[in-house]
Specification:
The protein has 10 helices and 11 strands. It is of the alpha/beta class.
């Protein structure tokens, strides 16, 4: 099978190998981890905007995993369903993916075990233009030599929870193989550009989006409330990939985790203000969490 070619290299992240590595290293250096990490990490939640905006937050999660586990055999990366409208989670179950850092193999054995449950479908085509998983892959390639991936697009439906539980159970059985589940989601998309301004197109509205709306989703994730994540996103519009987050949380809970650790929380407007000296009435939230 032909390898999946990158769809957003040169847009969301650099398209050339050296530039890609340089930006990953910059993100890792900026990713400050001040809290003590759990002894083992089985899952995480990462954002998926362009690296300029959310790369530092995503890097904090992968850096934390690397600090606890030098070797990870497979990353199950749950992605948001931005352009996929199927009912069931879509598994990229064979072959490999390409990025500017080279080729990374799909864990076909794990894919077969996941599909055997019946709650997900094999659909490599669904991944053709989805960026939420792709932007994580170079971090994995750079930090975890030899790791494989299992990309799964997860719609915001109850099947996400069953999928996460099933994969958590597979991880429990495979004690000779280190598998980490990562859910990819951004948080509140606030402002006129997104047609979402319940608190007005103002600085006060942006503050509410971050401190109230984002925070509700984060707190549910930290409590491993997978069902709450789906409901909160549906009611409050505080995540674009709630299915991906719910699957990661459900897997972590099945693996014995009882709470999560928030590593970073910011938004695109704060990044613009910090790095460019300007602000906007539109903003997207980003959080990095490990379990």
């Amino acid at each position: 099978m032909q390898a999946r070619k990158p769809a957003v290299a040169g847009q969301f992240y650099p398209g050339q190998r050296d530039s890609c590595i340089d930006q990953i290293e910059g993100c890792l250096q900026a990713a400050e981890i001040s809290e003590p990490l759990p002894e083992t990490i089985v899952a995480g939640i990462v954002p998926h905007a362009g690296w300029t905006f959310s790369g530092d937050v995503a890097a904090s999660v992968f850096s934390a995993i690397r600090q606890r586990h030098e070797k990870v055999d497979t990353f199950v990366v749950f992605g948001a369903a931005h352009g996929y409208f199927g009912q069931s989670p879509a598994v990229y179950d064979r072959g490999s993916w390409m990025t500017p850092l080279g080729e990374i193999a799909i864990d076909e054995e794990l894919a077969e075990a996941v599909l055997s449950h019946g709650g997900a479908v094999s659909d490599t085509g669904a991944h053709g233009f989805e960026h939420s998983i792709e932007v994580q892959v170079p971090f994995i390639q750079h930090l975890f030599a030899g790791a494989k991936i299992l990309p799964i697009i997860v719609p915001p439906r109850e099947q996400a929870i069953a999928l996460g539980r099933h994969i958590g159970q597979i991880c429990r059985r495979g004690k000779d193989k280190k598998i980490v589940c990562v859910g990819s989601t951004d948080l509140t998309h606030y402002g006129p550009r997104y047609g979402f301004v319940p608190m007005g197109a103002s600085r006060e509205g942006l503050r509410w989006a971050s401190t109230v709306n984002d925070r509700q989703f984060i707190d549910l994730a930290l409590k491993l409330d997978a069902g709450g994540l789906l409901a909160s996103a549906a009611e409050h519009g505080n995540a674009c990939g709630p299915g991906a987050a719910a699957a990661a949380v459900a897997a972590a809970k099945r693996l014995g985790k009882t709470d999560g650790l928030l590593l970073a929380h910011t938004n695109s407007n704060d990044v613009m203000l910090r790095d460019m000296g300007s602000m906007s009435l539109d903003s997207v939230g980003y959080a990095g969490i490990v379990f």
